[in-house]
Amino acid sequence: MIALRNIYKSYNVHGNVNHVLNNISIVFPDNTNIGVVGLNGAGKSTMLRLMAGVELPDEGRIIRTGRISWPIGFAGGFNGSLSGEENCRFVARIYHEDVDRVVGFAQEFADIGKHFYQPIRTYSSGMKARLAFGVSMAIDFNVYLIDEVTAVGDNVFKEKCQRVFDERRNHTSLIMVSHNMATIKAYCEKCAILTRGSIHIFDSIDDAAEIYRALR
Asked: Range of 121's domain?
């Protein structure tokens, strides 16, 4: 479970204050997969970083229970000078996981061939996303924070993503940011709309999709 209580977050951009999240309060319950949609700049990725503890809010409190993943997305949070394999080994040690198991799982899942042994800085954004997804799936989190990563890759990779989540549905939760409502429908049971610094969860993804279309 992740609960956000009266969260405020702003950034100073060239002397101007940009208020991204304005008094956000929401509970993401256990064992429920929730998609989050919003227009560009609405604060979706910022909210994921706060939930993961990568950034701190200006005000408010975040309550977490269970093991929460880092935000899994295009950037991946990798060290660009290290190879894919070396990054996987580092992540495995940080989370006290079996190094060889994590490396083997990530290599097979990402399926990026010889690039696995080359520096991350030589990767395309899609390759980084595939590796980030693979190494995160090698670790048993209670909640996975996903930022558009399932939009990359061919149909085989997307089917692998769907399959691994289906296998873990009974004991994990997804909080998935995406611009694609079809992706939200494929993975989630509910959908939240983040707009004008506030958020609301809809039990019906179709209802959320209709409102989201009106915003665009």
From this structure: 78-139
